[in-house]
Amino acid sequence: MHPHLRQKQRHSLLEDSSAYNKLVFNKKRNEAQDHSALMDEAAGLFRYEDCKDEYWNPEAFSLLYGTPLWNQASASQRVILNQLYWVAYYAQIISAEIATIYLNQVSAAGLYTHEDFRIVCDALDLESRQERAHINTFKTIGEEVEWRLFGERLFTYPMRSLYEQTMVFADTNTAKAFWRNLQIRAFTLLSSSNAFLASQYLLVRGLRTLNGKLIQHQLSNYYSQHADRDNAPVPSKISYYHFMDESFHFNTSKIIGHEIPRSLEPPTAFETWIVNRAVLGCQKDHYHFSAAIKGIFWYEPALFPVLYKIFRSSHFGMTDSEAKDMLYQCFSIENEAIHQSFSLHCMAVESYKAYVDSIAYLAAGNREMAVMGGNAISKYLERNVKALRKFKGAA
Ligand SMILES: [Fe+2]
Ligand SMILES: [Fe+2]
Asked: How many structural domains does the chain have?
């Protein structure tokens, strides 16, 4: 902004050269290394036949890994479970990235109401374009695998808006969905003309992607540590390419969420309340953990019908009572998978706390992640037993 002419704001982002330079550098590097074209190419090259007998992720990242089902599964069944982890995991990422595209635009609109924020908006534009390539790649492969193996959808879904559930398998009902919908509409309406709230969308975006960063790093290792990279399965390459793009997105979240408020007026009581609501929403969304698919905050009982379908399929060949009994064995009695998923959940809680530690305007319950940290294995088992009883009666 012109230093001598009257402006509406007292501070400029340009005065904060540390934050500004970080944003310029991060955007430049993301542009130079952009992996979205490689992802498009990989989606075009994918043929299930070429990699159907291989793992696509490290073994521990297989559906139901560490459950009694996994322990008794044959080698070829384990390959399917490993591939299904990829499909399910990235089905959740698609959902998160559909929301990201929309909220990036809203946030850019809010930040652009101030002088000198063009760099931030341009960075978000680039990221939205990359997300569209990511979504297309995950969707192409996920749908092909489900069609080839099952002839129907399990974890994937037709394209949709963020107003449908962000957690693909959530603990929800009509009333909860109504309130969630209203909250998003209110938040986006406010953020599109409010620079502080727009910056804090990125704080929440960073928080929401923190756990994914942890998991996706490990998924990308399968390719980066592969002995023969050229012939590594295409989906493992995609995990790697995606992780590369996302590391820049995470930097953007961190710089904007943590550092941009320095260039803005301190938040009003109302703005502070809204940010706290958004962080609380993240805590609630990330309250659950799943032993079927570790590293995702899915509500386990919402998965029972899909798992039942997998058990009954020709790949596992179970009868109705065998499939239901297996659900009991996997989800109502403590086992290795439950312990692993819960300990990942605890790690997520700790990393979230560290991430928001310096944010003075967050309430104690948000800084300590009191809601998200309130889950426990005993509560998880109790919910599952109840839901299984209902499922047994209904199916
Ligand atoms: Fe992405
Ligand atoms: Fe992203």
From this structure: 1
